[in-house]
Design brief:
Strand content: 25-35%
Helix content: 10-25%
Radius of gyration: 37 Å
Number of strands: 14
Shape: elongated
Structural class: alpha+beta
Distance between the termini: 145 Å
């Protein structure tokens, strides 16, 4: 308003709407989460509107729930971020960057998967089922528990059990005889992270077969114990005979000169 002549701006009502004469960097569109693993996350987003003709790139930064952070520049509207920690929540912020300005960020939070149990083993299938597995996250700072869900294939019987932290075995009781079950074992933690489930199928025995199997296993244990007892007994007897023979030989050598 202080200018004169043609350069002076005319007074206008505040209610009038006019187009802007310059524009900063627009933030990217909605951020979509693609694949999520134990140590990686893939992201993609829409390029900002009205910036097709403006050279720009994207600043991707992220922080974890434990306080670690990192950032990098990418010209693409998609990225794969690796070297993450299992079972942690990450907040990703993506901003549009030009030569002079940076837009407001578009943000999304993602929790990486925990490591799934490995080496699942079914130790016995009788009136109950004993399940064990290896705990791949035993050295982790996060205490992982395991959710074991089971259901019969016909859907008549189901349930779930939550183990104690770092527990790697569980006995499931009360299963129906001669029934096929599906077991899902999933690692979980208190922050809500989980692993991909490990699925195992099993078929429980009939009661008569179960009793016979238990008797046979008991006899097997008895015979095995008897075998080890006999082995130890013969080993002890052999050592005793050798020592007795040695003592007799020594006595003979001692008394021989006197007899002579």
């Amino acid at each position: 308003m202080s200018l004169a002549g043609d350069r002076k701006l005319l007074p206008r009502l505040c209610e009038e709407h006019h187009a802007f004469v310059c524009q900063g960097a627009s933030p990217p569109g909605k951020v979509e989460v693609g694949a999520v693993g134990t140590d990686f996350v893939s992201l993609r987003w829409d390029r900002p509107a009205f910036m097709e003709s403006v050279p720009h790139s994207f600043n991707i930064s992220y922080t974890s729930s434990t306080g670690s952070s990192s950032s990098f520049i990418s010209p693409s509207n998609s990225t794969l971020i690796t070297s993450l920690q299992p079972g942690e929540q990450y907040t990703f912020s993506i901003s549009t960057v030009t030569e002079t300005v940076q837009s407001l960020p578009a943000c999304v939070s993602v929790t990486t998967h925990l490591e799934a149990p490995v080496g699942v083993r079914i130790d016995s299938i009788f009136f109950c089922v004993s399940v064990s597995w290896a705990d791949p996250g035993r050295g982790s700072h996060t205490a992982a528990q395991y959710n074991i869900s089971y259901s019969s294939l016909h859907g008549h019987h189901s349930g779930f059990i939550l183990t104690l932290p770092f527990c790697s075995h569980m006995t499931i009781t009360g299963l129906l005889p001669q029934t096929e079950y599906m077991l899902n074992i999933t690692a979980v933690n208190e922050s809500g992270a989980s692993s991909l489930p490990v699925t195992v199928f099993l078929f429980t025995s009939a009661p008569a077969i179960t009793v016979v199997a238990m008797v046979l296993r008991g006899l097997q244990c008895v015979f095995l114990g008897l075998f080890f007892w006999l082995l130890c007994h013969f080993h002890w007897k052999r050592n005793y005979d050798v020592e007795s023979t040695s003592v007799e030989t020594t006595e003979e050598m001692f008394f021989t000169p006197q007899e002579v």
